[in-house]
TrEMBL record:
Protein topology in the membrane: Multi-pass membrane protein
Keywords assigned by UniProt, alphabetized: Disulfide bond, Membrane, Transmembrane, Transmembrane helix
Protein's gene: ADGRG7
InterPro entries: ADGR_G7, GAIN_B, GAIN_dom_sf, GPCR_2-like_7TM, GPCR_2_secretin-like, GPCR_Rhodpsn_7TM, GPR128_GAIN_subdom_A, GPR128_GAIN_subdom_B
GO cellular component terms given for this protein: membrane
Name of the molecule in the record: Adhesion G protein-coupled receptor G7
Cell compartments where the protein resides: Membrane
Source species: Erpetoichthys calabaricus
Length: 778
């Protein structure tokens, strides 16, 4: 018999140990090693450009061209009616230097890099351009770089440099900035200063190559990290650089009519006053966000803005020349707004905002019309409103003065302005939320059972409070009350009653300044109120389970004979006060009436957890105000549960004789009851974060079933199994066994029909383990 008992003990330890250790191991793995499961959805690239003439409905597009509505849309490397004409220079070799394919107008870099023992290790040794001259593709001669030259030395040389020296400095600066992701703030400011000086001096044919290299350098700077442009020194040099580019676009004395690089396009134009009505600049959509020469078009004799369905940006300048003088125009298009960092307009959505400048000389401006086509991923957001703005160099920020909105279509944004400078549209979007569905039957039924069981348990423990220690009643009743209130609030308040998806695009006619690119509906308080209540009572529930675990540890593991007199009031203050402090700190730190979503979620009324990209954000209150406190509490409860479980299984009882199997059965039930009251099953909530879909579904159903019925489980194990409760219920039903029915003054006594019953009593050998059952004989 002793060997059988030892086997049972070991089996219990192994069974519970494996289950609980597995749960916590999985929890730790999920929290520390879980990869991000949220990936930005793919975006179908728009067509690269529109051909000059349409083709028949069936178009045999070559070189991976896409046929849409009978028209071939070519990739960046090809052009022509059916994408048959190369838009690149082939791979080349020159003086032991090798270059890959280079698009027309772009610069390419050699595969050979500076050696490790040089100051510019890893930087390409040479660069060359692909040119289209008189319809023939040609490659410029490679320009070699000094692998020990630095930007600080180049900026000192540029002031007195002329001719070939200026070209050398410009090319070296271009190559030193060819890896923009590695550039520091000092690199950016120095390179921008060099480019600024070169463009200021770029007058005459000998400076054409230097000017092109300087524009290429600026284009590369626009690929540097966003954080670098928050620096004040970078902002100052960026202001000077944009002003210089605007002036450079009006200088046609160097015969540079256009330079197009991936992030920057500069176009110059001289228009005959006798033919001019207006000039239109168009940048067509492509397969990616980069600019390319074949997608830049200029109409020098337009009467008004002619909308191109494939355009991404268009600007139309209508002005009148003075004294029959030819007009000089300049356009500058920036692929993004990194040179225009606003202090008042905050951006949270990752998207490029193109900025375009239109300038003229020798004339009087009549009007400017602009068109912008928003390019964003519409799977998670939808358009809400926009503002037509220009860059005010006095304010060093965006301004709406002198511009009006002229669009009623959120797919095409139009503006009208009465002055020239750098223009853009600031857009605001709203999230497309997927709101939670009403609670399913399993949740409603489970919560209903839990609420009923918790209410009965509270009433029973209050009525019978004199039969047990006061502290035990306070703890169990507090757990049940907080869990009961949480379930009630969960059922009636978890769904957001005021979804912002009902808010339609405003598209107001007023051209008002915007403060952010993400529209957040001002809080009406309902959902935030229920979020705070849910947060408080769920935290309170688990703080009380922690106190219950501490009490068990003191009495059963450390075997305290009694607890201090101040213990009761201490646990009351701790149990209800600590959750209140956490909720108050959370509200104060993260809630703002104009931005409630930093505190709560929009889809349902609970703490915020994800960022705008749908990824878990550690700065949101879900982590530090709920998950971490819950994890600490569950870890402590788990440790106490294991200690109590081991002590209960291995504790010797000399009074046991022949009913050890029944004793171990009672200990097993007792272990389950402790696990329930300590909330151990809530560990499954952390396991729901696992990426594996099938496992996630299993843990989701287990979590739902075990936790929505937690109150009912407490009722079963702590109330229904109580002798006092069973006796009270038995007495209540016994009182209904005799009844008198009156019918037309005839009395029927039901006692005569009562069946004879005998009461049998079975007594176990363990003290205070008596069970009574009533059997009915027919």
């Amino acid at each position: 018999m002793s060997s059988e008992c030892s086997f049972i003990k070991v089996s219990y330890v192994i069974f519970f140990g494996l289950i609980l250790a597995g749960l916590w191991a999985a929890f730790i793995w999920v929290m520390l090693g879980k990869p991000s499961s949220v990936c930005p959805p793919s975006v179908t690239p728009p067509p690269s450009s529109a051909p000059s003439t349409p083709t028949p409905t069936h178009c045999p597009c070559l070189n991976n061209g896409i046929c849409q509505n009978g028209v071939c849309f070519c990739t960046d490397e090809w052009k022509g009616e059916v994408c048959e004409i190369a838009n690149f220079c082939n791979s080349s070799t020159s003086v032991s230097l090798t270059f890959d394919r280079i698009l027309i107008g772009y610069s390419g870099y050699s595969k050979e890099e500076c050696e490790e023992n040089t100051a510019n290790a890893g930087i390409p040794k040479a660069t060359r351009r692909c040119l289209l001259e008189a319809g023939v593709l040609t490659l410029s001669e490679p320009v070699l770089m000094d692998c020990n030259e630095g930007l600080d030395r180049l900026v000192e040389q540029v002031t007195n440099a002329t001719g070939d020296e200026l070209v050398k400095i410009a090319s070296n600066t271009q190559m030193l900035t060819s890896q923009p992701e590695k550039l520091t703030v000092n690199n950016i400011t120095t390179a921008a200063d060099i480019a600024n000086r070169i463009l200021t001096r770029a007058k005459g044919n000998e400076s054409e190559m230097a000017a092109v290299a300087a524009v290429t350098t600026i284009s590369q700077l626009l690929d540097a990290k966003d954080a670098a442009f928050e620096n004040n020194d970078v902002a100052i040099v960026a202001k000077s650089l944009t002003e210089t580019l605007e002036a450079f676009s009006l200088e046609n004395s160097n015969n540079i009519t256009g330079v197009v690089q991936p992030n920057l396009a500069v176009q110059s134009l001289t228009v005959n006053s006798s033919l001019m009505q207006g000039v239109q600049f168009t940048a067509l959509r492509g397969e990616n966000d980069t600019l390319i020469s074949k997608r830049i078009e200029i109409n020098s004799n337009a009467s008004n803005l002619i909308m191109d369905r494939n355009a991404e940006v268009q600007i139309f300048l209508n002005f009148t020349t003075v004294n029959n003088t030819d007009g000089q125009l300049g356009f500058v298009l920036y692929q993004n707004d990194k040179f225009f960092r606003s202090r008042f307009y905050s951006s949270t959505i990752k998207m490029n905002r193109r900025v375009i400048s239109g300038s003229f000389s020798a004339g009087v401006l009549n009007s400017i019309d602009l068109l912008f086509v928003p390019n964003y991923n519409s799977s998670g957001i939808s358009f809400y409103d926009y503002a037509c703005v220009f860059w005010d160099y006095t304010l060093s920020d965006w301004n709406t003065e002198g511009c009006t909105k002229t669009s009623d279509d959120d797919k095409i944004l139009k503006c009208h302005c009465n002055h020239t400078t750098n223009f853009a549209v600031l857009m605001t979007f709203k999230n497309n939320y997927k709101y939670s569905k009403p609670l399913e039957v399993i949740s409603i039924v489970g919560c209903s059972f839990s609420m009923a069981g918790l209410l009965i348990t509270v009433l029973f423990y209050i009525i019978t409070r004199k039969s047990r220690k006061q502290i035990l009643t306070i703890m169990l009743v507090s757990i049940c009350i907080s869990l009961l209130i949480f379930n009630i609030i969960f059922v009636i308040g978890i769904n957001n009653p005021n979804p912002s998806n009902m808010t339609k695009s405003s598209m107001s006619r007023d051209n008002n300044q915007l403060s952010t690119d993400l529209y957040i509906k001002p809080d009406k308080g309902y959902c935030t109120f229920f979020t705070a209540l849910l947060h408080y009572f769920l935290l309170a529930t688990f703080v009380w389970t922690l106190l219950y675990a501490v009490q068990m540890f003191l009495l059963l593991v450390l075997v305290f004979s009694y607890l201090p007199s101040y213990f009761t009031w201490t646990v009351i203050g701790f149990g209800w006060g600590v959750p209140a402090v956490i909720v108050a700190v959370t509200l104060g730190a993260s809630y703002r009436i104009n931005n409630p979503l930093n505190y709560r979620q929009e889809e349902f009324c609970w703490l915020a957890a994800l960022d705008i990209q749908g990824k878990f954000d550690i700065s949101k209150p879900m982590l530090w105000a709920f998950l971490l406190p819950m994890a600490l509490i569950l870890l402590c409860n788990f440790a106490v549960f294991v200690c109590v479980l081991i002590r209960a299984i291995f504790k010797k009882n000399s009074k046991l004789t022949s009913t050890k199997r029944s004793s171990y059965k009672k200990k097993l039930l007792g272990s389950f009851s402790i696990a329930i009251i300590l909330g151990i099953s809530w560990v499954l909530g952390y396991l729901m974060l696992i990426d594996h879909r099938e496992s996630q579904e299993v843990f989701s159903y287990l979590f739902c079933i075990l936790n929505v019925t937690q109150g009912f489980q407490i009722f079963i194990f702590f109330t229904a199994r109580s002798k006092t409760f069973r006796k009270s219920v038995s007495s209540a039903f016994s009182s209904l066994s005799v009844s008198n029915i009156f019918w037309h003054s005839i009395n029927f006594d039901m006692k005569r029909f009562k069946t004879t019953s005998s009461r049998e009593t079975y007594k176990q050998f363990e003290p205070s383990t008596t069970s009574a059952f009533t059997s009915t004989s027919t």
